[in-house]
Amino acid sequence: MSLPQGADGEQAPPAGTVVRVDVASGELLVPVGCVVVSSGGDELVLEPAGRGSATARPGGAVVVRWTAARGLHEVPGVLTAVGQRWRVRPTGPAGLVQRRRYARAAVQAPVAVVPVGGEDRRVVGGWLVDLGEGGVRAHLELDEGLDAGTPVQVHVTLEDEPLALTGRVLRTTDPRGLRAIGTATARLVEVVVAFEEPVDHGASIRRSVLREQARARRSARAGGAR
């Protein structure tokens, strides 16, 4: 038996994917960050990595959510086992909840991320990977990841304009073999931040993204003409 496939061909998240599991607790949904260990057979095996895991009970209803290239996906399920590893039996097919609403472009520039609203006030430096009106992906110099949901400010300079962008950490991953770009350390963590709406400095981000996209198209055309 295999996991049910969505109407548009959506599959379950592959091993290594960082997901958010919304665990039913009374009338509340408690979000817990997890990493997919395996998604073969008829269940998902997850390793909880976030706060709130104590609320999970076998038989409890959950919704597993993750972001892929097409946008936000989710699959409903029920917990069949909890502990160091959770087992989730899907009760329906995976589905695409929200397609990407914003254009994105590869942007390489220094970035600083600062947690706000808590005791953690460290300034974390790194390098942008891509940028859009809806959020940013960056490789940061971190000894440990930032928890999903952490409010942060992203400081970056675009076209000589310094910007402070408010958002929340969507996910962090620790991809092996990351090449350090613009930094001397090889210990990098990939962090995705979703901006709050309305997006601060949206017009500036949009201009920068459109220019980067146009530059990439010109480069592609020039390469094809050789």
Write a brief structural summary.
One of its GO terms (molecular function) is cyclic-di-GMP binding. The chain has 226 residues and is mainly beta.
Q: How many beta-strand elements?
A: 14
Query: What global shape is seen?
Result: globular
Number of helices: 1
The CATH superfamily of the largest domain is identified as predicted glycosyltransferase like domains
The helix-strand sequence is EEEEEEEEEEEEEEH
* N-to-C CA distance: 50 Å
The overall average pLDDT, rounded, is: 76
Largest sheet: 6 strands, antiparallel, barrel
CATH topology annotation of the largest domain? Thrombin, subunit H
Summed up, the domain count is: 2
Poorly predicted regions are: 175-186
CATH class of the largest domain: Mainly Beta
Order the strands across the largest sheet as they lie in space: 1-2-3-6-5-4
Task: Give the helix level as a range of percent.
Answer: 10-25%
Protein name: PilZ domain-containing protein
GO molecular function: cyclic-di-GMP binding
Pfam family, one: PilZ
InterPro entries: PilZ_domain (IPR009875)
Helices and strands, with pairings:
Layout: E1 18-25, E2 28-38, E3 44-48, E4 61-68, E5 71-81, E6 86-90, E7 95-99, E8 104-106, E9 110-115, E10 124-132, E11 135-141, E12 151-158, E13 161-173, E14 188-195, H1 202-225
